[in-house]
Amino acid sequence: MDRPMDLHYTDAQEAFRADARAWLSAHAPAPRSLPSLDTAVGFEAHRAWEGELAGDRWSVVSWPEEYGGRGVGILEWLVFEEEYWRAQAPLRVSQNGVFLLAPTMFEFGTDAQKARFLPPMASAEEIWCQGWSEPDAGSDLAGIRSRARRSDAEGGWVLSGQKTWASRGAFAEWCFGLFRTDPEAERHRGLTYFLIDMATPGVTVRPIPQIDGETGFAELFFEDVLVPDNLVLGDVGAGWNVAMATAGSERGLSLRSPARYSRSADRLVDLYAERLRIDPVRARRSADAVAHAWMCAEAYRLNTLWTATRVLDGGSVGPEASANKIHWSETDLAIHRAALSLLGPEAEFHGDGVDAPWLDGYLFALAGPIYAGTNEIQRNVVAERMLGLPRT
Amino acid sequence: MHFAFTDQQLEFRDAVRQVLAKECTPGDVRAAYDAPMARSPRWATLASLGVVGLAVPDAHGGLGLGLVDLVPLVEEAGRVVLPEPLVETAGLAAPLLADLEDATTDARVGPWLDALAAGHLTVAVAEPGHPGLPIAGAVGADLLLLVVDDGLDGPELHGVDAATVAVTPVPSLDPTRRLGIPAWTPSPETLLASGEQATGYLSATSDRAAVVVGAELLGLADAMIALASSYAKDRQQFGKPIGSFQAVKHLLAGAQVLLEFARPAVYGAAWALDAGSYDTSVAASVAKAYATEAAVEAARVALQVHGAIGYTWECDLHLQLKRTWAVAEAWGSATDHRARLLDALLADR
After folding, report:
1. What's the CA gap between A5 and B69, in Å, rounded?
2. Which value does ipTM take for this structure?
3. pTM
4. How far apart are CA A309 and CA A317, in angstroms?
């Protein structure tokens, strides 16, 4: 443990970076050349890209080789992410599976589940959505009412109820969902985590157009949907704990790698330099906001390396994941707000033939403080579990 | 890649924390308000632990260590609002004099380093670019490191024995800052460095100051959040601790999130300056700007959570608030550093 502080990557890590960069520069599609992954056509285009990524084992580098990965560590994964974002490669249509479900499955899944689900997840042949929120249970997730009834005759569980805001839900093949299996138990107990084939009879999907008009999420209806016993992840009744592992990934290290924001922040400085030439008076009014946004992205990069080192040294990520989620969501907003203020009257331009990455990015960033548990819920977690304040 | 302190660094920090908890209580800081001094008995303790001479070479009685070693200790100094000039003497003067010793034949430098490590010499360091303004720690200092810059021939760095000049005190929000304006005349005898060499020393000192003051602000922010959280658990209104109300929780959580991200920014900058292999000016500016934002927000929140009691002289909070507000503006404000950061980023484009 008594290694001196060192923020250099090793030669081996730099060699890994060079391999990733070479592969991406030969294979990655031109920036923003694929249609939005929230359209049917774009979804398939992104799936095809991820298939190519997986073909050369670049889709899930940190997974064991038997499941399609390269068996590298978290630092190499961060290096890969830096290169992925540097190449401006497409958003990951498989992200709910790869970044959220997979870490949970490595922790709680049976060998049979891992062998069955991880390889097609890595290749994007099977894409996952998340079935957690319900119309009456959002921030209060433990208040979910969708039920699963045990059927010994059918050898499984019969699911009924309604889920909503399922990202990728309009097109996904599989869903990981939380259902109440014991209505008598205390609310956090009696929940079970299910892996659900969306093609099972009784599943109905109603796509929901998002603020940008595209169907990024969906409502899911379950009417007597039979899920066999071997598709329960973790123990029956232990769904809350399993779900909190997923939430930890969503808020903590795995969903949002720092490279995403470092790359946006660098593009923001490029935009500033460009606007400085066109309209220096106006650009300089946004100088402080630009520098602030860049600084937030840099602090995020450093904090991730700090946390990754702690994890590699045997530590864990607890309520810091909530602080992390607040920070990355606010950083994304700060970057895009600064960009729109630089663009001024041009910020609203959108439509035929006009590329509007900053506006699209801003609309996406607006969701950040809401999904993965609202930032208000995260502030409660920080206050109660990091500062020891009494529960509300 | 291993971004963590060593066990040894953390043990040193814990030892310093224990000593300061005993020797630098809020009562001690209040006593220093009434009679500020640079070399207190507490300073002798810090010198004997090796804290004061941490960056002084072994040959001069120091530990020969770097900023990564110093930063956790300065954080502890910030936590207790240490009245003595650890930032200036151990953080700025010691490495500057150590660099100078390698490059100069000035016979004064070696003995200064000896005396500094032994705890017999405190130093005030002028901020470049602020000619004529009061200098922190100048009242009661033994050595003044001063800057002359006529804007034509480049800056000059001078070392002035404080016993030979009159220093006019300037009252500060925080009396332990011991602000003063020295009446002095540059001479060949006081000159330590000029031209490019001086520019290099001053720029390195400004970067170090951003990081070391950043570390002090981390300690202050942590202490203010802790004090306010503790108060929020005790203070009852509407029959409940006020810390159970979301309006209060969210204030404190927001400050805590800023602090969480300020820490690695400061630690990473300390490493960057020690390693010299990274854009040190960018790293230093991110550190000072972020730590300042975090501490100023912690100060605002801590005062608000305390309510009226926080606005009194009786409550210890004001000791932390005043130090925070004073050093937030020292060695470049958050806004200054964001501007400096953006200039550095644009220089690459």
Report:
1. 10
2. 0.96
3. 0.96
4. 11
